[in-house]
Amino acid sequence: MVVSYINITIKLALGLLSIVMVINFTGKGNLAPSSASDQVQNYVLGGIIGGVIYNENIGLLQYFIILLIWVCLVLSLRWLKTNSAFFKKAIDGEPSLLISRGKLDTEACRKAGLTAHEIMFKLRSNNIYSIRNVKQAVLEQNGQLIIVMSGEENPRYPLITDGTIQAQALDSIDKTEEWLLERLKEQGVESVSDVFLAEYENGNLNIVLY
After folding, report:
1. Of 135, 133, 131, the residue nearest 172 (C-alpha)
2. Mean pLDDT of residues grouped by 10 in the chain (210 residues)?
3. How does it sit in the membrane (predicted)?
4. Packing angle, helices 60-83 and 2-26, rounded to 10
5. How far apart (Å, rounded) are the C-alpha atoms in residues 196 and 203?
6. Which residue among 92, 119, 142, 197 sits deepest, i.e. has the most Cβ atoms within 10 Å of its Cβ?
7. Using CB atoms within 10 A of its CB, is residue 85 exposed (0-12), middle (13-18) or buried (19+)?
8. CA 138 to mean position of chain CA atoms
9. How many CB atoms lie within 10 A of CB 37?
10. 8 A C-beta contact, residue 157 and residue 198
11. Which phi and psi (to 5°) does residue 58 adopt?
């Protein structure tokens, strides 16, 4: 039995080290998952450790190789999401616009798997009792509903993230892409792809370049 406990301890240590390594390489996203892929990779790791740790038929070398494969897959997935907007959208999806200018998009709600009762519950949780008072309500990938009320001047989302224009954020402040491109040129920015982050606050466009 002593040998079994030693194997279990080593397997636990390897699992812990793999978690620490992934967090250090990918940031703190695994600690507070913001997308489905972040949550799934945590579940997979839990399944690997839980399924292997007490299985005497799987040796330390096999277990190490399995963890190494998992780490490589997670790092590769993170790299693709960071460097390709197409892969990020394909892997994590994108926010869903449920309410626009007081009108509820029933088709978007159906695709998101939300009933009318669930939507109203989310609104009531934010002290909102009528969709007519909502200028924009967006369902994030993690299930959180972000609400912009009628009359709000500042968007809840940045206008540009990772070199990509966020059309929904522009719509929430009644601006167009042409307006945004013109504002970028005024600040000496020729291409949207050069912008890491652009926020709009109180009439000012704050830009962070790569």
Report:
1. 135
2. 68 79 64 63 75 75 83 82 74 80 87 87 86 84 79 71 82 82 86 86 81
3. Multi-pass membrane protein
4. 10
5. 20
6. 119
7. middle
8. 13
9. 19
10. no
11. -105, 115
